Amino acid sequence: MRITIACVGKMKSSPEQELLRKYLKQCPWKCTIHEIESKKSLSTDQRKTAEAEQLLSLTATAHQRIALDERGQTLSSETLAAQFGQWQQQGSSHIAICIGGADGLDETVRNASQLILSFGAMTWPHMLVRAMLAEQLYRLHTILTNHPYHRS
After folding, report:
1. What is the DSSP string of 72-119?
2. What is the percent of the chain with per-residue pLDDT over 90, rounded to a whole number?
3. Quick one: which of 37, 38, 94, 131 could link to 20 by a disulfide (CB 3.0–4.6 Å)?
4. Which of 28, 31, 19, 21 minimizes the C-alpha distance to 141?
5. Is 141 helix (H, G, I), strand (E, B) or coil?
6. Is 70 left (phi over 0), alpha (psi -120 to 50) or beta?
7. Contact assessment for residue 38 and residue 9, using Cβ atoms and an 8 Å cutoff
8. pLDDT average, residue stretch 26-35
9. Which of 3, 13, 53 lies closest to 33, judged by CA?
10. Residue (of 48, 72, 92) closest to 133 by Cα position
């Protein structure tokens, strides 16, 4: 399985970056992160449109696209793992995940996604979400392969 994570904003050296690296290194799936810069000089709507164009371009070859959005579904790790497993069984070998900027995702990204996922009702820092996502990807793999990490 190949995972593309397309996100708005550049991650700097930080504890979040260390967590991100740790979990991506543990995950056997090939995970690639593409960061795009937010054009602060644009209006909010223009910025979200420009970000959406780049996110969709970076994830165009994916078989499935997930949008991380506060208005999305909250799923258990087991349920999300089952969805990944179903996609794998259907022949999907490339999943893309889009993370918007401070203003969120443009509707075009939401509409082009097969799953809109939320990490809960709380607001999370965008850089921390990347680390949380990486941990969940590792966890999903361990659930699908019956590795004890999920319940150790």
Report:
1. EE---HHHHHHHHHHHHHTT--EEEEEE-BTTB--HHHHHT-SEEE-S
2. 88
3. 131
4. 28
5. helix
6. alpha
7. yes
8. 97
9. 3
10. 72
The residues with which 56 forms a beta bridge, in sequence order, are none
Encoded amino acid at 143, one letter: I
Can you list the domains of the chain with their CATH numbers?
Answer: 2-147 (3.40.1280.10)
In 3D space, the residue among 35, 34, 36 whose CA is nearest the CA of residue 62 turns out to be 34
| Cβ contact 65:98 at 8 Å | yes
pLDDT in tens, 49-77: 999 999 999 999 999 999 999 999 999 99
pTM as predicted: 0.94
The answer to whether residue 152 scores a pLDDT higher than 70 is no
Q: Output the six-digit token pair for 73.
A: 């579904």
φ, ψ at 61 (rounded to 5°): -90, -5
